[in-house]
Design brief:
It is a single chain. It contains eleven helices and 21 strands. It is an alpha+beta fold and 415 residues long. A five-stranded parallel beta sheet has the order 6-2-1-10-21. The chain starts with a strand and ends in a 5-residue tail after the last helix. The mean pLDDT is 97. The structure holds flavin-adenine dinucleotide. Flavin-adenine dinucleotide binds next to helix 1, helix 2, strand 3, strand 7 and strand 12.
């Protein structure tokens, strides 16, 4: 098989990359190992999109382009409740319905003319003269190769970059990663039940005091989802090496045990939760962080917090820095003026591999910048940019920053 652009990973970054590349006029394939696109949104029930809007008043949307196509498609499906501003923090999220998200992403990918390839694992690469020639894939029929002129690593774990011998860093400078969390979807809770953060914390505290040693986080997050009215609860934290199946196995099982304990605690101590039941966990534990690629510029926490502008901007980050330590409440730090910072193309362009761009939570940034840029809204933005850069490279053998910016603007990106 031969394409102009291969995108590995079909999360928010990969979907945006593939559509961005296809919209710039090149033949593009999007490879995803799961049976649906969406990445953490659909496979780990991370159903609140952060980073499409900054905290500023009045409402300021900072990521457009492919993200807008996604929101428009959700709207046509009757599944876009609009942005929701948390009155306390000022954070603006877009809540998602999981099934509508899967279906909307299918439609976006197909409408753009991207070739979708689900149930397909990328396991190796063919590389020569510092350029990737092909990816090796595996499905139940066996191994096969897909050649292309340009590639995007949107795998969330930096698989493609690592397989190609590109430089990667695991976690922060000391190899520490943000906590992983198994998301719980809970049904059977009446619409008027309070989801007060303090009430959850008190309930967990009570259970811990009574001797429950399984529970980790007291101050987690709970929101009500559109459509189903289910409660999305993020409490069950684990420390995991998200690259290692042995570590993941231990974490999945331990987190599932936690989820059943949390359910029990909520039923016993939270008014309205008496008949609550687990609709679903995961399906997969949500891994926030593994590898980061080495690009041509490491986006810094100072860049993010000071709202720094870059000449070679290709995306905007508008979510505050949000750090998750295992079992601890999330720590937030505001971006200057509650606005946004620029993400430069240099942070996506993988050092040492001529025809590879990165996108989403693996782009080159320090731990503080990562704590903001990792979110799904921003991943739509960096994905779109990486796809356009790869598309232009495939078409004309170089991705000049002015051409990338012009094409992104033509495709409706906000830069
Ligand atoms: C518990 C938790 C809560 C979070 N809360 C929020 C939140 O409320 N709002 C928010 O916006 N963000 C949140 N985030 C962050 C956000 O979900 C991720 O940072 C974001 O999804 C990154 O997008 P991505 O496309 O880079 O990666 P992912 O969404 O992880 O997608 C990567 C995709 O690549 C595929 N893949 C990987 N390797 C291969 C391979 N070798 N072959 C084929 N396919 C492959 C994977 O199956 C996956 O679908 C949260 C994350 C976690 C874990």
């Amino acid at each position: 098989m031969h394409f102009d652009v291969v995108v590995v990973g079909g999360g928010s970054a990969g979907v945006a990359a593939a559509i961005g590349a296809a919209n710039s006029g090149v033949r593009t394939i999007l490879i995803e190992k799961n049976p649906y696109f969406g990445g953490a949104a659909t496979h780990s029930s991370v159903l609140t999109v952060c980073g499409l809007f900054a905290q500023q008043e009045p409402l300021l949307q900072v990521v457009g382009g492919v993200a807008n196509q996604f929101l428009d498609t959700l709207q046509r499906l009757g599944a876009y409740p609009g942005p929701f501003r948390n009155p306390g923090s000022g954070n603006v999220i877009v809540p998602l319905d999981a099934e509508a998200t899967k279906y909307a992403l299918d439609q976006c990918v197909v409408q753009a003319g991207v070739t979708p390839r689900l149930h397909c694992n990328v396991t190796n690469v063919v590389i020569s003269d510092g350029s990737i020639q092909a990816v090796q894939c595996f499905d139940h029929s066996g191994s096969f190769e897909i050649e292309a002129a340009a590639f995007v690593d949107a795998s969330g774990e930096g698989d493609l970059t690592s397989l190609a011998g590109g430089k990667v860093r695991f976690g922060d400078d000391e190899g520490q990663v943000q906590a992983a969390t198994l998301v719980m979807r809970i049904g059977g809770v009446p619409a008027d039940a309070s989801l007060s953060r303090q009430a959850f914390a008190d309930a967990v505290h009570l259970a811990k005091a009574a001797g429950d040693t399984v529970l980790t986080k007291e101050k987690g997050m709970a929101v009500r989802l559109p459509g189903s009215g289910h409660i999305l609860a993020m409490f069950a934290d684990e420390v995991v090496n998200g690259l290692d199946s042995a570590s993941l196995t231990k974490a999945e099982m331990s987190a599932r045990n936690q989820a059943w304990h949390y359910l029990d605690v909520f039923r016993s101590h939270m008014p309205g939760f008496e008949q609550a039941y687990l609709v679903q966990t995961g399906p997969s534990i949500g891994v926030r962080e593994t590898r980061h690629v080495k690009g041509h510029y490491t986006l810094t926490g100072e860049d993010a917090l000071n709202g720094v502008r870059h000449e070679d901007v290709v995306a905007r980050g508008g979510w505050p820095v949000e750090i998750h330590q295992p079992g601890q409440p999330a720590v937030y730090r505001q971006i200057k003026d509650r606005a946004y910072y620029d993400i430069p193309l240099r942070s996506l362009d993988v050092e040492g591999i001529e025809n590879l761009w990165s996108a989403g939570r693996i782009i080159d940034c320090d731990p503080v910048a990562f704590a903001s840029s990792r979110v799904m809204g921003t991943s739509f933005g960096t994905g779109h940019a990486a796809g356009v850069a790869a598309g232009l490279y495939a078409a004309i053998k170089h991705a000049d920053i002015r051409d990338v910016q012009e094409e992104l603007r033509r495709q409706g990106a906000y830069i």
